[in-house]
Write a sequence for this structure.
């Protein structure tokens, strides 16, 4: 295993499970000190325990991305604990109202997706950029989705709109802040082996049958994490405003 992130500090939101946990584990395995963030303490503590079990360094911080004050405090606490912030991975998101046509989408589900997936992304970016701009730059990777800017499905209009906004916001931030030494990019997973892709009461086997891809299987959380780490690493030093789709060929 290489150590591309030795001596760096990384922040991962939505790191209590699924893709966020996989990204946090991968960053720690490659040498980063990792701040894991989310709204609930217990799963974050589990992520930290998994990292420490493998000899890594991590700390858990509860925060709600839909609150600007929480995000500013999260960045301050991360920098205070580990001495700075070099890499940020904005992964926190929700999927609500799946299966509902646009005309029937519950306004509460719409508000939740906008508040967390879009406004929360903005608040995270603003807090991270403020620190990085004052401290020599850094790399930010937003976790989007192939649903939205790349493909649409019936009954997914609210989620598609929110994730399309993430794609646009990523590119806008990339252009606005590359002059500050901050690289902003996105990874857009497709059907992935993560809790968010499971319907209520659905088994993993049932999910695999429902979510087919040209590749013939779901993308693993580790494969998504590998894409995130590439964009965050020095190897992607000239990659600015990219949206890397990792979906087994669904949008090919």
């Amino acid at each position: 295993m290489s150590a591309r992130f030795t001596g760096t500090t990384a922040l991962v939101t939505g790191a209590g499970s699924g893709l966020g946990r996989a990204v946090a584990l991968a960053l720690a395995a490659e040498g980063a000190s990792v701040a894991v963030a989310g709204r609930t303490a217990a799963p974050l503590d589990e992520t930290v325990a998994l990292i420490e079990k493998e000899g890594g360094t991590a700390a858990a911080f509860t925060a709600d991305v839909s609150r600007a004050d929480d995000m500013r405090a999260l960045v301050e606490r991360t920098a205070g604990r580990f001495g700075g912030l070099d890499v940020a991975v904005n992964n926190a998101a929700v999927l609500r109202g799946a299966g509902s046509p646009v005309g029937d989408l519950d306004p509460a589900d719409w508000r939740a997706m906008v508040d967390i997936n879009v406004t929360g992304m903005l608040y995270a970016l603003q807090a991270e950029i403020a620190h990085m701009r004052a401290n020599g730059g850094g790399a930010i990777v937003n976790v989007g989705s192939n649903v939205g800017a790349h493909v649409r499905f019936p009954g997914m209009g609210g989620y598609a709109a929110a994730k399309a906004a993430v794609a646009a916001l990523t590119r806008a931030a990339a252009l606005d802040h590359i002059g500050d030494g901050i690289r902003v990019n996105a990874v857009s997973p497709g059907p992935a082996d993560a809790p968010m892709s499971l319907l209520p009461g659905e088994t993993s086997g049932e999910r695999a049958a429902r979510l087919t891809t040209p590749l013939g299987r779901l993308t693993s959380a580790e494969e998504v994490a590998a894409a995130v780490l590439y964009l965050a690493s020095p190897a992607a030093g000239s990659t600015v405003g990219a949206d890397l789709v990792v979906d087994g060929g669904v949008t090919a």
Remarks:
- The chain has a mean pLDDT of 95.
